[in-house]
Amino acid sequence: MESDPQQPATSNAGQRLEAGQVIDGFRLEEHLHQGGMAHLWRVTRVDAAPGEAAAPLIMKVPRIKGGDDPATIVGFEVEQMIMPTLSGVHVPKFVAKGDFTRQPYIVMEHIPGTSLRARFDAAPLPLDEVIEIGSRVATALHDLHRQHVVHLDVKPSNIMFRPSGEAVLVDFGLSRHDRLPDLLDEEFELPMGTGPYMSPEQVQFVRNDPRSDLFALGVLMYHLATGERPFGNPNTVRGLRQRLYREPVPPRVLRPEIPPWLQEIILRCLAVQPADRHQTAAQLAFDLQNPTQVKLTERAERTQKKAGGLMTLKRWFSAVGSEPVTIVSAAEQTERSPIIAAAVDVAGATPALLEAVRHTVQRLLQTEPGARLACLAVMKTNRIATDELMEADGSSKHVNLLVKLKHWAHPLQKALEPQQRELQAGRITYHVLEAPDAASAIVDYARKNQVDHVVMGARSSGGLRRYLGSVSAEVVAQCDCTVTVVRAASED
Fold first, then answer.
1. Residues 326 and 354 grouped into a single domain
2. Which domain holds residue 31?
3. 3-state secondary structure the chain
4. Where does the pLDDT of residue 388 fall: very low under 50, low under 70, confident under 90, or very high at 90 and above?
5. 297, 437: one domain
6. Model-level pTM?
């Protein structure tokens, strides 16, 4: 965190907070930062055992400016409610909190370094960095949404990175938890958020859609890639509502070297309707990590602003008085749009087993209409010796395996055709993994791409196979997600 020698912090009672002061067993060591809503102090535990290497801690104290400051008070109450419910590497670890009757505060893990805000002054950034940031933040958002929380204030100053690389989301004062009271919705009648990053549905007072965070991430990536904000910096409700009917300038107009697939992703994030965006943050991260699999539409090739005055006017009439479609909860939206991986031995499995796996996958796709399917095949390589990458006839082993994989999945693609083709575009992707160990390759892929469910086949259980183990058994043992192992009826 950046040191900020501004006005000294004050307590709830109006008393100055000073280094050396002890609050509920935490000693104030150094005033790190003064923001618009809070002070940040580096603190230590007074009762830490001698010689114990205490984890670095930070205390957040709200700035309550003279008399009642309802927005600050309620926002801090929200953060005090939500933070104890969160866990994992993508949020600071919660330690303690203080009551408003005496001294409100939150003590949490101190994430070293500065926020992403420091990189914004250098925008536009190298595109590889933009993609990496987008992928890591999307991964963090997916973890948050699975914990029933929509952040609703995703912006550079609220994003940090651990030394190990994971994005960390901070400042939950505007957030909403599916299972806790929404104090901000109950007490305020204006849209809550940071102007440049607010989604159209937030402007319309919807606070429970996790796809709002994807809109904000789209704004963030647009700015990092182009150096410009897609909707400016509005400070009135009227200005905010313009994003309901005005399209941003395509990123490639401002920076021609942006690849079409990245423009496709960014503009999809910025769609007015949440249903037209990625349905989960995991699906967004998946596309950023697999650019060759991104389904391109006309927006990928836009090199000029599409909508003229007449189109803008039509959209304005459509937006006036429109009611946003609401969803039940963040976790529900995430759960009904899983990423499924079908690990298929297209070169070695029997036709009966291949059909059984395909049938299982088809049932899942029909049950989960929002699901993404990644079809996987593993091309085994040698650990030490040089690999022979060509077949005897001179064709590529990798390409041949990919062709077989697409042939296996063709009936699945065909089964989706009666449903809205445009919406189904890109729902099924194909990946050939090159690795010496098939099980490890499948497990690593599932972890990296936040796969929710792996489906794979298993051959008959002979004595030798039971003794040596199988790929499916290893995947079941090592994978963090659900694994369904399918056998053909004739092989039981």
1. no
2. 22-109
3. CCCCCCCCCECCCCCECCCCCEECCEEEEEEEEECCCEEEEEEEECCCCCCCCCCCEEEEEECCCCCCCHHHHHHHHHHHHHHHHCCCCCCCCEEEEECCCCCCEEEEECCCCCCCHHHHCCCCCCHHHHHHHHHHHHHHHHHHHHCCEECCCCCHHHEEECCCCCEEECCCCCCEECCCCCHHHHHCCCCCCCHHHCCHHHHCCCCCCCHHHHHHHHHHHHHHHHCCCCCCCCCCHHHHHHHHCCCCCCHHHHCCCCCHHHHHHHHHHCCCCHHHCCCCHHHHHHHHHCHHHCCCCHHHHCCCCCCCHHHHHHHHHHHCCCCCCCCCCHHHHHHCCCEEEEECCCCCCCHHHHHHHHHHHHHHHHHCCCCEEEEEEEEECCCCCCCCCECCCCCEHHHHHHHHHHHHHHHHHHHHCCCCHHHHCCCEEEEEEEECCHHHHHHHHHHHCCCCEEEEECCCCCHHHHHHCCHHHHHHHHCCCEEEEECCHHHC
4. low
5. no
6. 0.86
